[in-house]
Amino acid sequence: MATQLTVTSSEAVTPSIRRVWFRSEDLSAFAESAWTDRYVKLVFPRPGVIYPEPLDVKALRGTMPAEQLPVVRTYTALFPDVAAGTLAVDFVTHGDEGVAGPWAQAAQPGDRLLVNGPGGAYRPDPVADWHLLVGDESAVPAITAALAALPERAVARVVVLVEDAAHEPALPRQDGTEVTWLHRAGLAPGEGLESAVRSLEWLPGRVHAFVHGEASEVMHGLRPHLFRERELERDQVSISGYWRRGRTEEGFRQWKSELATAEAGAS
After folding, report:
1. What does the pLDDT read at residue 62?
2. What is the per-residue burial (b if ≥16 Cβ within 10 Å, else e) of 212-233?
3. Which residue in 77, 108, 161, 219 has the fewest CB atoms around it within 10 Å?
């Protein structure tokens, strides 16, 4: 069942990340959500299209042209407070590009959105010897939530790719947390998250890893490194692409489906 969110305020986290705060009369769907990669599906109506109430995207499929259907985008929900009815969503913005980013830039108190969810599958293992958190701007919200949930005295190594130093967000840190910033503007060809992870000192003991970002780099570069070279078990790693360069979310979903089919055929 969809939850209605109303904008209360917004703020710049970095020049490319806009945090929008929402309030809802009913956040009970989040009451049992303990995952730090807590994701939701935000529903953006098309301008000028009148939809039946209550708005149900699944029910509308097949009843109107695809170009009139609401646009659905996936985001991490931050700081849900069920009692207060509040939560936040961080949007990566690229000027006028896309649907969700421009909406977040223009969001004003009183604006409304529908949200479906939450889902999720990762939370830092409290008994892991150390934690590896890797991603780009799209993964910063989930990394933020994971760092905030780490047990006291936890050891974490964090690698984050952003545009430049001005785009480095403030991250929760404990004494055992070390953050490596990668600046896209200064990277040489072939450098990126994979090379940075390969350069990290690999700590002893059992690691629990969260690795998300651009799909090609994560799935074709980092995944083989972690599973084949580091020989990590499946339950030690949460890894997937959050986006695919040159594709909308709809195109990215198709790419993921094609990749899953190809991998199933090769197994």
Report:
1. 87
2. bbbbebbbebbbeebeeebebe
3. 108
